[in-house]
Design a protein that fits this description.
Blueprint lengths: L3 E4 L3 H13 L3 E7 L6 H5 L2 E6 L10 H11 L3 E3 L9 H9 L3 E2 L4 H8 L1 H10 L15 H11 L3 E9 L2 E6 L2 H19 L4 E5 L5 E9 L5 E13 L2 E7 L6 H18 L3 E10 L2 E8 L6 H8 L3 H9 L16 E8 L11 E2 L2 E3 L6 E5 L6 E2 L6 E9 L2 H14 L1 E3 L5 H8 L2 H5 L6 H6 L2
Parallel strand pairs: 1-2, 1-4, 2-3, 4-5
Antiparallel strand pairs: 6-7, 6-8, 9-10, 9-12, 10-11, 11-14, 12-13, 14-19, 15-18, 16-20, 17-19
């Protein structure tokens, strides 16, 4: 097992990793920008190293600075968390080249799944259902029209190197396609430095279902059930729950078997999430995230498995201590992403937190690095807390969620707590009758 892990991230996920390491008897090194010198994970870590100014490009994305920090501190492993460098195959390779263990998948798997076209082709060959569309990237408007006519409108033009909804545009008809194609390529070039795009059939009113997997280097692969991430705004997740309120258990088992079989054949190692659109009983692969997910706590709540601990153990060469038949799904869990944003238009709202009182009680978990007096910086993602609740049934979980949201006090800045309170009391959400377009409609009421 590792003696010292460097945490190459910030905020609540850095604190989450620190806690897992401490419970395993592992020392931690927190790297931070000058803007995060008073962050909670920096305060609690065994060692700290400042790696640059507030701009992420000069700190949390600064590979030489992170490697130097690991070498100076004598860290024998690096955990990248999520975001930043977590899905950067080059970073993973550089870490390993310096004799340090990267707590994550092999770099070739990060690279393959980071290219959305290659990922789709790979998954299709491995027997995972995919969305109908182009066989690869589409380079011209003329080719786009040919693919769209073959697939049928409406279609989605998507950035090959994309994520988070950037470089993604819909075309309802042939008349819409030219502008959508050009706009998607321009956005992809600006966001990822790569304007290659591909085309998929637009699946109407689907749910967003993702399957959490865990694999070791000994050929053992298990799935930890699904998460329903359909509540999204501009392709950004707002709330997640497990299990999905509309996915039958037999369909969960079937897609879980297909995913684990694919990952076993691929030789995948570590935690990963395979994401699908789900409509009328059919699954369509959209992407794989080769990292820890923001919403991993809902899976931990219903399975009792510490995913971060398992990531660390697998990276250290240990075998999974359980088989698929050993995993039990108990109850229901919901996670609300609490952002420092205007709850009406999602405008970032950084500033100093004057009051902070998280909810508590049975089945309530809050992952956050916030505290009274903490200044939320304007330079990074606006997520400041994750409220996760668990109940024996979804109904009990919903009641616990409402109570917890009412108890949650974050003063001095705007947050999305009022939005979550409105969602928790909406009839469609209470009955589970929603899809990936529902939140946009809800916000427009």
């Amino acid at each position: 097992m590792f003696d010292k892990v460097l945490i190459a991230n910030r905020g609540e996920i850095a604190l989450r990793i620190h806690r897992a390491c401490r419970e395993m008897g592992i020392s931690t090194v927190a790297v931070h920008s000058t803007a995060d010198s008073e962050a909670m994970h920096v305060r609690l870590a065994d060692e700290t190293v400042c790696i640059g100014p507030p701009e992420a490009s000069k700190s949390y994305l600064n590979i030489p600075a992170i490697i130097s920090a690991a070498e100076v501190a004598g860290a024998d492993a690096i955990h990248p968390g999520y975001g930043f460098l977590s899905e950067n195959a080059r970073f993973a390779s550089i870490v390993e080249e310096h004799g340090i263990t990267f707590i994550g998948p092999k770099s070739e798997h990060i690279r393959a799944m980071g290219d959305k076209v290659l990922a789709k082709t790979t998954m299709q060959k491995l027997g995972v259902p995919v969305v109908p569309g182009s066989d690869g990237t589409v380079d011209t408007v003329e080719d786009a029209h040919a693919v769209a006519m073959d697939t049928g409108f409406p279609v989605l033009i998507k950035a090959s190197a994309g994520g988070g909804g950037r470089g993604m545009k819909a075309a309802e008809t042939s008349a819409d396609l030219d502008q959508a194609f050009r706009t998607a390529r321009a956005e992809a070039r600006a966001a990822f430095g790569d304007d290659s795009v591909y085309i998929e059939k637009f699946v109407a009113a689907p749910r967003h279902i993702e399957v959490q997997i865990m694999a070791d280097s000994h050929g053992n692969v298990v799935h930890l059930g699904e998460r329903d991430c359909s509540l999204q705004r501009r392709h950004q997740k707002i709330l997640e729950e497990s299990p999905s309120p509309r996915l039958p258990a037999e369909e969960r088992d079937e897609i879980g078997r297909r995913v684990t079989s694919a990952m076993r054949t691929l030789g995948y190692r570590g935690a990963g999430t395979v994401e699908f659109l789900y409509s009328s009983g059919a699954f369509y692969f959209i992407e794989m995230n080769t990292r820890l997910q923001v919403e991993h706590p809902v899976t931990e709540m219903v399975t009792g498995i510490d995913i971060v601990e398992q990531q660390i153990r697998v990276a250290a060469g240990e075998a999974l201590g359980y088989r698929q038949d050993d995993i039990r799904f108990a109850g229901h869990a919901i996670e609300c992403r609490i952002n420092a944003e205007d709850p009406r238009n999602f405008t970032p709202a950084p500033g100093t937190i004057t009051d902070y009182h998280p909810p508590g009680g049975l089945g309530v978990r809050v992952d956050s690095g916030a505290y009274a007096g903490y200044c939320v910086p304007p330079y990074y993602d606006s997520l400041i807390a994750k409220l996760v609740v668990h109940g024996v049934t979804r109904e009990e979980c919903l009641m616990r969620l409402k109570r917890s949201l009412d108890e949650f006090v974050i003063g001095g800045i705007q947050t999305t707590i009022p939005l979550h309170q409105a969602l928790a009391n909406d009839d469609d959400f209470v009955t589970g009758d929603y899809n990936i377009h529902w939140l946009e409609e809800f916000m427009g009421r």
